[in-house]
Each structure stands twice: as C-alpha cells, then as structure tokens.
Design the sequence.
C-alpha cells in the first residue's frame, strides 16, 4: 500500500492544551521501560522518555481517536534544532548504552520507503520533525491517521491491517539527534537515537 495523501498533521497550542487536559490525571512511572503502561486498552496511554544516560527526560502520551492517533511529546535536554521522531517496532528502551537498538526498526507493515516527502509513499512510522529550543525543550503534538494504539470498531477500515501499535512486544517512540530530511533511506539522515519512550502491555 502506498500513501499519497499527507495525513500526519502538526497541531498547535489548542490541541496541545486539550491533550494535556485529557492526560493530566495520569502519572507516568514507566521510566522508558514500558512497564507499567498507564491507562487501559480503551483509554489514553503515557510513559516516560529516557535519554542515553538512562535518566528520565520527558513524557509521551497517546490518545486513540476514530480516525487515527494523537501523539503528544514533551522533552528536555535535546540539542537546539530539529530532530527526527519515529515509531519503532518494539517497546524496549532498556539498552541505553547501545543507543536504544532494542526498540527495533520502524513500524512499516506495508514495506514502503521512508520519508513523508518520498513520492513512493512513506512508512506509518514517519512523523514531522520535532523542534527543540535553545533551552533544549521540545513540546509538540502530531496526528497520524495510519496508526492506532489499540483496535477499535472502525480501526481496520481506517488504518488497515498491521497498523495497530500495541502488539505483544509493544512499540516505542524514538527521537534522533538530527532532523529527518523525509527522503533519504533508511531514516532520512536523522542519525543516532537520543531519546526513547517504550509502550508495552
């Protein structure tokens, strides 16, 4: 399957505020291990980002909607500038000294090439870049209409088979040291993995 419409959208402050309100009652205690996963399979999901030193550097929250999933990320300690951010196959961020390789590759059940600007289609894992300010803080919301955390009544028709993130080995959100150019294979030149948020059952 090749996706030719741009259905990953960057949301503004209003969407961020709404998502924060929805997730505000949850306390994240996973410390990037994906255990425990906060929320239940019918609700919202959140966990911590950890850096390569094993310390908690932020949070990630996801809300399943009828047309996809809304992702909210809030991190600190990044270098100033743009950073690639992708969905990875395994909910494991335990190998901090190895650069989070345990999180596996990109979620790409369709076998597409990488990159939102790629004329041959893009992976379900691909997201817009994340910007960190001079203080190293990065906060953003993204909507991806090709994935959901859990199945819903309309999920199969909306996102297709293989796009449910919460499989037996979970999934992760990974932030890279450099921007993703959305064209170069296999990861848009985004470089090393510098932060990881693991989700698991």
Sequence:
């Amino acid at each position: 399957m090749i996706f030719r419409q741009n259905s990953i959208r960057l949301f503004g402050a209003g969407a961020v505020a709404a998502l924060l309100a929805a997730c505000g009652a949850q306390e994240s205690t996973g410390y990037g291990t994906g255990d425990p996963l906060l929320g239940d399979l019918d609700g919202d999901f959140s966990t911590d980002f950890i850096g390569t030193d094993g310390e908690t550097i932020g949070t990630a929250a996801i809300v399943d909607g009828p047309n996809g999933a809304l992702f909210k990320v809030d991190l600190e300690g990044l270098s100033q500038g743009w950073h690639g951010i992708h969905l990875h196959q395994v909910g494991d961020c335990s190998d901090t000294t190895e650069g989070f390789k345990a999180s596996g590759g990109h979620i790409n059940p369709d076998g597409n090439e990488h990159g939102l600007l790629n004329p041959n289609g893009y992976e379900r894992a691909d997201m817009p870049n994340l910007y960190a300010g001079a203080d190293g803080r990065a906060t953003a919301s993204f909507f991806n209409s090709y994935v959901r955390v859990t199945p819903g009544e309309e999920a199969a028709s909306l996102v297709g088979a293989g796009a449910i993130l919460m499989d037996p080995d979970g999934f992760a959100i990974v932030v890279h040291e450099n921007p993703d150019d959305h064209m170069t294979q296999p990861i848009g030149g985004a470089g090393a993995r510098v932060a990881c948020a693991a989700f698991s059952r």
About this structure: The chain has one domain: 8-24+31-199. Confidence is low (pLDDT under 50) at residues 1-43. Residues 13-23 form the longest helix (11 residues). The CA atoms of residues 47 and 138 lie 16 Å apart.
